[in-house]
Amino acid sequence: MSSTLTLLLITIISAITTASATTIGVTYIPSSTQPPPEQVAATLKSLKITAVRLPLPSPSLIQAFFYTNISLFLSIPNNLLHNISTNRSAASRWLYTYVVPFYPRALITAISVGNNVNASSGDDVIGAVRNVHQSLTDLGIRKITVSTTFSFVDIMMTSFPPSSAEFEEPVNTQLLTPLLQFLTETNSSFFVNLFPYFVYKLRAEIPIGFALFENQPYSFRDDVITGVRYRNLFDMMVDAVIAALTVSGHADMPVVVTETGWPSGGLVNEGEGEGDAHPVYAGMYLNGLVSHLRSGGGTPLRKEGVAQAYVYEVFDTNTSFVNQAAGRLGTGLHWGFMHPNMSKKFNIDFSGGICVIDSMLVRMIFSLVIGMLMF
């Protein structure tokens, strides 16, 4: 009886989908120098990548992900926000171009209305987010999250120590306060681009190992107020966002890291070389990031960690589509983790995962097995 019970338990637990605590996705920006989107989609699926962010979507690009079971995160360009915010029909037109013809054959799960938005566009952002959400509701589509995306360095007034973090003004009052209320009402997430690389470059006291997930005795920083010890800069930045959300009255809001990565090369500021933008460092960061997120350990302030994190990016695009922090520190950095021939620059395993089973589920499994054995 004991051996039968053990066998049944193993069978049932093995049948449970193995899942990571955090969904790890990638950002894909196509260009003419890359393989066709259909080939890229197939390769990403073969790498066990389950989520793709498309900052510059097109109908043909979305169609390439039909029936792949890869979730898609779409973005609406900033230059469309004013029109969409003042005209609900403009929101509907965008949805009829990029969502309605493809959903649910393409597994679209989120839309960011703008990227790296700031206080100056506050009214447009709020109006556009509301109109896109309402237009989706009118279409009977209720499983697509609608939010907007911020840059960490643009919204944080105080970020260290994390427990003292607050959002910057005037973006807090003019944009974040009404947006966070809307996100709470619609059960949506907070989207943020979060690059430890840029914070490391701006703060000379941060050791490189702490930014690269190195497991070294000196690779830690303590929150001097709470005494919490941080082993990597990524967690420290995430917890700064979570603390700021808590101060704003939204402690439980899910956080999605929409861009994160480390450059493997490139030129910055008047053509000077960038020593910290190195293939070794990029590989260390991406492997450390994936391993850390797969561990399911979360952060000191949030056990479950971030809901999703998107690696920036699949290929070196070298386009004008750069985040604002990158623009201040220099352009031309190479962020891709794959070559145009579809080979990986770094040996990153996106397929790993942990089996997330809580004690209640274990008890349910035991009850089920015992019930089966009684018949």
Automatic annotation (TrEMBL):
Its EC number is 3.2.1.39. GO terms for molecular function: glucan endo-1,3-beta-D-glucosidase activity. The keyword Transmembrane applies. GO terms for biological process: carbohydrate metabolic process. SUPFAM superfamilies: (Trans)glycosidases. It comes from the Eukaryota. Residues 1-21 form the signal peptide. The keyword Transmembrane helix applies. Keywords: Glycosidase, Hydrolase, Membrane, Signal, Transmembrane, Transmembrane helix. Pfam families: Glyco_hydro_17. The chain crosses the membrane at residues 350-374. Belongs to the glycosyl hydrolase 17 family. This is Glucan endo-1,3-beta-D-glucosidase. It comes from Helianthus annuus (Common sunflower).
